[in-house]
What we know:
The complex is a heterodimer.
Chain A: H1 2-20, E1 33-34, H2 39-46, E2 53-54, H3 61-66, E3 70-73, H4 76-80, H5 84-90, H6 104-122, H7 131-156, H8 189-206, H9 219-232, H10 236-252, H11 262-265, E4 293-295, E5 298-300, E6 314-316, H12 318-321, E7 334-335, E8 350-351, E9 356-358, E10 361-362, H13 363-376, H14 380-392, H15 397-400, H16 404-408, H17 410-425, H18 430-439, E11 450-454, E12 461-464, H19 477-481
Parallel strand pairs in A: 2-5, 3-11
Antiparallel strand pairs in A: 3-6, 4-10, 5-9, 7-8, 11-12
Chain B: H1 14-33, E1 37-39, E2 47-54, H2 56-67, E3 70-73, H3 75-80, E4 84-91, H4 93-101, E5 106-111, E6 114-119, E7 137-146, E8 156-160, H5 163-182, H6 213-216, E9 226-230, E10 236-243, E11 247-251, E12 258-261, E13 267-272, H7 276-279, E14 285-287, E15 292-294, E16 302-303, H8 307-312, H9 319-322, E17 330-332, E18 339-341, E19 349-351, E20 353-355, E21 368-371, E22 374-375, E23 387-393, H10 396-399, E24 410-415, E25 422-436, H11 448-458, H12 476-485, H13 491-502, H14 507-514, E26 518-530, E27 534-546, E28 553-568, E29 571-586, H15 620-630, E30 645-665, E31 668-678, E32 681-688, H16 692-699, E33 702-703, E34 712-713, E35 720-742, H17 744-747, E36 750-774, H18 786-791, E37 793-794, E38 801-802, E39 809-829, E40 833-844, E41 858-866, E42 879-893, E43 905-908, E44 921-925, E45 934-947, E46 952-964, E47 967-971, E48 980-984, E49 986-1003, E50 1007-1025, H19 1035-1039, E51 1051-1055, E52 1057-1060, E53 1066-1069, E54 1075-1076, E55 1087-1092, E56 1097-1107, E57 1110-1120, E58 1123-1125, H20 1172-1178, H21 1182-1185, E59 1191-1193, ...
Parallel strand pairs in B: 3-6, 7-13, 21-24
Antiparallel strand pairs in B: 1-3, 2-4, 5-6, 7-10, 8-9, 8-11, 11-12, 14-15, 16-23, 17-20, 18-19, 21-22, 23-24, 25-26, 25-64, 26-27, 27-28, 28-29, 29-30, 30-31, 30-32, 31-35, 32-35, 33-34, 35-36, 36-39, 37-38, 39-40, 40-41, 41-42, 42-45, 43-44, 45-46, 46-49, 47-48, 49-50, 50-56, 51-55, 52-53, 53-54, ...
Amino acid sequence: MKKHFKIIAILFLLGVSQTACKKDFLEVIPKGEQVAVTTADYDLLLNSYSLYNYLNGGGFQEEMVMGDDVAAEAGLFTTASPQPQLTRVFQWADVVYEPKDLPLDLQAYLGSMYTCNKVINEVLTSESGTDDQKKSLQAEAMADRAFLNFILINSYGKPYLASSAATDPGWPIITTANIAATGFKRNTVQEMYDFIIKDLTAAIAVLPAQSVSPSRISRAGAEALLGKVYVFMGKYSEALPLLTAAFGDVAAATTPARLYDYNVELAPGGSFLPIGFYGPNGPGNNYQDFTESVLAKIFYCGSYNGNGFGNDGLVLDPKTAALYGSSDLRLQLYAANNPDGSSNPAGRLRKYAVQYANFGLGLSELYLLSAECKARTNDLAGATTDVETLRKSRMPAADASVPSATAADQTALIKFIIDERTREFAMEGFRWFDMRRLSVDPLFTGAIYTHTLYDATNGNTVYTLKQPDRLTMQLPPFYIAANPGMENNP
Amino acid sequence: MLLTALFGPCRLQRKDLTKTLLVMRLTSILLLATCLHLSAKTRGQQITLSEEHASLGKVFRKITGQTGYLFVYRDEWLRQAQPVDINVKDASLQQVLDICFFGQPFTYVIIDKMVVLKERTAIIRQPELIYVDPSALIDVHGRVIDANGNPLAGATVMLAANRQDADQFIKARTAAMENGRRGNSSELAPMEIAAPQAAYPVQAGAPGQIVTPAQAGAPARPTHFVTVMVTDANGEFFLKGAPENATLFISNVGFETQELKINKRKDITVRLAIKVNQLSNVEVTYNSGYQVLSKERATGAYSKPDMEIFKARSGTMDVVSRLDGLVPGLTVIAGPNGVIANRNGNGKTTQSALIRGKSSVGLSTEPLYVVNGVVVTDYADVEPDDIADITVLKDAAAAAIWGARAANGVIVVTTKSGKRDSKIKVNYSGYINFQGKPDFGYSPMLSSRQYIQAARETFDPVEYPWGSLYNDYIAPHDLILYNQYRGLITDAQANASLDSLAGINNMGQIKDIWFRNALTTNHTLSLSGGGSVYSFYSSLSYTDTKSNSPGAKNNSYRINFTQDINPNRNIKISLTTALANTVSSSENPIAISNSFLPYQLFKDAQGHSISMPYVQGWSDSLRNDYQARSRINLDYNPIGEMNLKNAHNNNLAVNITANASIRIWKGLSFLGTYGYAQSPGTSNSYDDHNEYSMRRRLVGMTVAPTTASTPVYYLPTTGGQYIHTTNDQRNWTVRNQLAYVANPRNGKDELSVQVGQEAQEQHNTREQLILEGYDQNLETYATLDYNLLSQGIFNTVSSFYGGYYTLPFSVTDQLQRYDSYFALANYTFNHKYSIDGSWRQDHSNLFGHDRATQNRPIWSVGGKWQLSKENFMKPVRWVNELGLRTTYGITGNSPYIGTASTKDILRVSYSYPAVSTGPALDIQGNANTTLTWETTQTLNIGIDYSLLKNRIGGSIDLYHKSTVDLLGNVALNPFTGVTSGTGNIGHLVNKGIELNLHMVNFQTRDFSWSTGLRFSYNKNKLVSYSTPSPYSLTASGKLGANHWIGYSSAPLFAYQFAGLDNLGDPQIRLADKTVTKTPNAAGVDDVVYKGTTIPVFNGGFTNTFRYKGFSLSVNMIYSLGNVMRKDVNTLYTGRLASSAGWTGNVPVYFADRWKKAGDEKITNIPSYVSSYYVDFTRRSTDYYRLGDINVVSASYIKVRDVTLNYSLPYKVVQVLRIERVNLYVQTSNFMIWRANKAGIDPEYQSSGYRSVPPSKHPVSIGANVSF
């Protein structure tokens, strides 16, 4: 009897311990989660909406408020959100962020940077993809990284000036995806631009002409971006061939980007109709409308929604409003009313039909960049054609032509093209970048930028941009504090 | 206990007695002999023995070895036997046997060369001693019961001529015992127990018969007599021919001895009162979940609650809440701050507990819960009535055996099991607990009149132009003011309307319509019993919880069945099967309190319910437009909504635990613990399309540009939303151990060793199905184009972009596995010195985690010295017990799944917003390669004491807990793309003292008063913290910090408030003594430490008074030394009522704010400034809100509960043919002292906000009945 138990017990003990000690007992991959192993995993990672869709905050929030194309209505603006940062950005205050603040824009960019670096560093050793697929994904991530760096250097570095770029503090070049990394140092503006150019040049060489979607960067997108980078460096002749190449690649796409012709879309039966509470039903109200996109990057540009700044109380600055011809159909995106529909007593315009702005690269910008490069390199006819191509899709053909006097005068034409940029992208943040680069452009020096807070009760307040310091934002204190010794902008 | 003792010259020949008994018992002995265990060997007669704490069987073997006497007994008797302490030299057999059998539940007779053990039911008498008139002899039948009417088996019944005889007997007996133990065999001589001489011939007679002197033919002379017997399994005894005036002395371990004159009574029931000093703290054994340790041998810091108080706390069914104040070192976080939801999402909650302070900053600080040896994730299902024992393991030696999850301590629960060899017992207990309605007066808000005045004072149509509120909430009073401002109504009209609002108070309606009296009813019926091989305990319980919320139902049904099987002496199996089913449902009442607009009624004078669409936040014009375009009614009538939504939950919990013990060889046995628990739950909710939020959602998914256009609905317009959720938690544990027990050095020492392996799995799954347009009768639903809907519908009625992102089906699946090896050993030297040690290695399946970093064994060592057993302590008679113990060891705390990984963890992005290019992966968790398990080193020094005949007893513990590699949220360099992550961040130290004291202050037969005191002191300090985030190095970061280097956990910092300035703006004093109101002026050193929010001292204080059948128990708890923020005004800027929902009112403090220059002399409450921007840039109201003037002491003492218990007299109970009846009434929650003057109950204060207790003073009425 006793023996019997002994044997049973020992066998049982052995049996149980055998099964429980199996090696794979602890090797469990939880459901719904995985680590990147195959090339396809990296492909899906680049599909992540966080790389192109900044709907929950981030994008061009700060730029939207800092452009001199906006003004604000007291009452609506100051009460819209209890966010002092919004007001400070509007006032171009030296210090916008408090020590605790983590600006959404910056967080979003750096979060995307992590993903890009991960793909760049890891995809070549991933499993079961072809070399071409791996290199293409790597190139895509490099182009995306260049896009992010281009925004960062244009927010936190001085405008590019060849003479001082090598010493102007820029932004740290980040090439690893490592949360434990510390001791970041700001590279110079020149180093940053060199790095951006290096990334884009490498990407262009590898990227296929066709991309899955405009939300995934294609060769055309990388070319256009590099062209834009050169424009921002004042290297127009180097930009032009890239922009031309981009046009070619766009045209060759299976579904080429095309300009919406507002004359058609806003005419009876047009796709922008009916005009609802939020205006015409165009891409500004549909973040998935990539018709004009060469490289789609969307940010939320509507009213304050708890994240980001929102555009509550922002109106088109009357000086900018004056740039539009009365027949310009882009005015249809504006309404001279308050958010509740009641009319604005002063008739100032609110851009209500662009709840989502595309801060990537659209075909319209490609035309404008091309036009500018041509004008700068004295191809005035080419420049005029390009700008008119855009204008014809934005207003009746009769009003689309560039006045002949302007078309014949290089400086006037450049200024006209810059104004056209303002008209095309007003209140979407583009103007701020242009203000910066034009501040070092001899053609535009001496410009004074102001913001007006319209207040019918207490009188208007005008804020003037303090140049050159405030053309560059200060790094948020949180970022400086994390890296002792890092110098901030004045 | 001695059976027979003699006084005076009379002696009995051993031979004769033997003969008598031989006649009586021989047949039965012979019959038994076939199945009895015999052991034999022959040697000499004189016995020399020295044993401490030896097993009786072992002593028998030694006696047999020395004398050749055989022992005849049943095996199970020996298992019930007490260990023996003996030290004799050349003693006689009977001397030795008397010592061995002292206190044993059985006795012996010597038949020839056999010592035959027998049950103690027969009377062993000394007939020669009694000289009484035969006519004065009566037969007495008696029964001994406890206070609850339970029969007391094995109680000693002593029949004596008088008390002197009894005392003399006991004294002599005790002295003999002591001498025997100490080996002073010579001192045994005066007792002469061993060699009685017969003075008279003895006649054989039936047992129990008292032989008179006449019968014996002896000369009549006065003498003394003592006859001792014990009660049988039914607590009964029978005395045949007892002197009618003799006295009975009835005693039993743990009970007060009762003296009773027979007084010619033939039927006697004796009720023994429990010894008061045994009432609290009957700490005999500790169950660590791995082994049961005697208190003497336990080196670790273990504590047990007073289970009497635990059982009586019927105010809650939550096991943790019932432990409040009962265990030193265990802090139960009372009130809403401490409610924690079960992690598997089945909606069950329990109260949070903390053992010896917070030893982690980032991980859970909840103890590990173990039921019947198995780690449980859902202890809400344990029925408190079924709990037999709770042991709280506090230090490393106690808890380390539980490994990497035991750093927060372990609470080991053992459920009841049946007693062997007991008759079937039925027990009923039930109670009703009345909680009533919340007392909103606790958190006073502005009255309607004050509110309207505040509305007038704060109205600012310039700062908040009518046009800016197109999409905002406009309360009725605001609408009147705007209408007046916009000239739509006259001033007189406006004033009249506002005045009428000021005259309405809706509190009555709120309490009547939205609250009901909460009530909990519980009934538990249990049945237990057992035979020699099988015993069981089963219970059936029903709990009906009626919450404050109208329409809600919650019924729990629990079944517990525990079986113990002992098929033979080698195998022991116990099997616990528990089933719990909770069925609950709810309707759709609004969640409202007194913070809603005070004037809005819900029913008009005619009793009709009122529509109040504004509450939902859309202005009238907007709503009318949406309504016209969508053609969907947008009225909102909260009473009408009651039945439009319902939810039903059904949770089942099945728990099976088997514990097996198989003896393999001598002291070696195999122990197995196998637990399986599964708790499937389903919940179904239905939200009708007519319900407001459903209508509103539909408006957002309807395209209708104008009122003329036919609306296109993108979601169903009929049926409703049906959500079906199933959740399941499946846990299993398999533990196999080999245990070896030995008594080296001839039984002087004790050794036990265990080694084992354990595998555990906790698998948590949840699936949810959401259907739209569901028809409850037809069970049909709409098929949706999920892709289209998630891409978004542009320009819907209420939004430029309407999206439906709901996933029709979603799953969560979480698996946690552990594979562990462990060993533990105890060695006790000479029954005085114990050492023990444990070791454990855990590995878990933490995803992506490098297993090498888990190779951190958990271990402990400990020692105990039983000082009171030393000879030099013997003279110190007032010390009954004194033990010193110390332990050191390491326990761990493992991170949750996903917190640590060597690679980036990716997760599929769900469809919001739809990814235009198809499926995508997102980085869910960033690679974090450097993490290791958090480890806690604990040093514990303790003293166990028992003094003054055990009237005072308890323990003292000192500990030092040092936690390194704290896992927590660490600030990362923001340039990495991640601003914070999990890291091993620092070093935290907890030090403390715990006291446990119980005292019997006063004790007579009818009245007693006893006191229990639990005290704990904890000092906690964060020694280092690796990378403070830049934000945390600012004043506001410090004010919000949960930990700060150099300070205790949960520190509270405050600004040094320096009064208001002439604009009513708060000012502070900085470290350099300057006074400022500039926002952000304060640096990190300008805020001052005010204390910790965790109690520094806490514990319980219990007083129990008993008078006859009544007992009154008063349990106080105290929590001292911590601080809290006072609740203050909440409105400094913005609109008075600015957000939709059941809010809008503000605390009364608003009325006392700064209003005009000069007010700064009389108030500290800052002014109201309508503009957010001005408020933000001109000043910081945090200077006031988080100022030191608003930090108060959170110390308090509360009577947690008072229970009056009445046991029906036995006579009454007997008439009813019931064993016992207990009735009690309990009420709870009486604040008796608080340090703050603001009337704050710290249990209901969190981050400067008051929450209203759900009940003021709950009252329970209950009964316990045994059949």
